[in-house]
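User: My collaborator and I are trying to settle a disagreement about how two of our proteins should look. Neither of us wants to argue from intuition anymore, so we agreed to look at predicted structures for both before our next call. Could you fold the first one, then the second, and keep them clearly separated?

Assistant: That sounds like a sensible way to settle it. I'll keep them separate. The first protein:
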Amino acid sequence: MDLIENMFDLDLKKLSNAIFVNSPLEVIIKGNLFIEEEVNTLIELHLKDPKEYFKKNYPYANKLDLAVALSAISKEVKNSLGRLNKIRNSFAHDNEYILTEKDFEDIWSTLTLDYKTLFTEIHNLFKINRYNVYTPQSKFQLLLVVIWSKLRSEIDWAFPHKRKIERIRIHIEYLEECNKNLQKQIESKEGQNRIIQEQILNKREHIRNLQEEILFIKNETAVYKEQFRVLRIENKEKRNELIKLRMQAEKLGIN
């Protein structure tokens, strides 16, 4: 699998994790964010100086008009994305907005055959896996996957080299960020290791001091033992002298 295919699968997984949730608001808002990102990429790839354009935060509707003018997307796709954006705006102004079958049909009526064909294929695949594909929310989840996938596929097909360079750049930035975080962890560990090393050195110094005290005590003990031995000898000699004196006293009849 090459880099483009790998990145497609990774991004598709991110999209799926974002929209296959219970909240219809999250489904629409997050799904539209992913799709708008692909529209932005299409515009970037068609412009010679995209940074100049994206200095201003243009409304999404203006971006769609520009994408059509650049032949980045068809008018039919623009209509589909425009209607999807209206539903997003409905949720943005009303948190209790409810997705209906009519919302889905309004967008479905604007889809081109290739979009409908891909939707049917994915729809049937989910049915086989016993996923509930009959509610408006579940249909919108599949529809968002289809629209995102088609836009991404068109980008990867029309601009394979630019796309690959862009993906490599993003991957490099990701690796650099990982490297920074890893470096911070290493520096943190090194700081902890320095503290531990200082503690070890302090403990070793304490042990050396204790060993010197023990050696001093041993030397003192040896001196005391020698003094005690000398005293015992002297005491023994004095006892022998005392015995002699007593024997002499007995001979002389002195009690």
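The second protein, kept apart from the first:
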Amino acid sequence: MAAADEGVHNYQPASPPQPVPGLPFFEDGETTRTIADYRGSGVVMNFWATWCTPCVREMPSLDRLQTQARGIRVLALSVDRGGAPVVESFYRKHGIANLDVLVDKGAKLMRKLRVRGLPTTLLIDSGGNEVGRVVGPAEWDSGPVRALIRRTIETRAAPTTEAGAALSPSASIRTIPSSPAS
């Protein structure tokens, strides 16, 4: 793990990787989705809320990541009680143009996945298994974070070593500073 003064610290690998439960979340407030709808793609599943300051700061980088990451879907699941209209308004206000409006009604999936705080982001391989999570905000479109995403999500699909062990990704990423820039 890199030194804390480099701002790199909050990736937690899942050992062993765990299947993500098939609980529903909602697209545009109406269409039911589950993680199975995204099988075959790596997934960056972010739990957030419009009232969460660190979440608000990282949303533009998640939006940019969606345009930069090939073969990876970014799913930003809002836990706002106001549902899709609140998220749509937030997206318009902040210029978020590349993310679907997704809502985890009643935070049921968030609770089932034992997400304890916002933002928390799961890295899910193409088979629907959580391979790791980032607790707290991150600069999602930065080079080191994109490299971590590729390594962690691709690790599950990549060949194993001659001894049969899966290759392990690095365990650190660059985080967003906690104080706003002046």
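Some points you might bring to the call about the second protein. The chain has one domain: 4-155. The longest strand covers residues 11-19.
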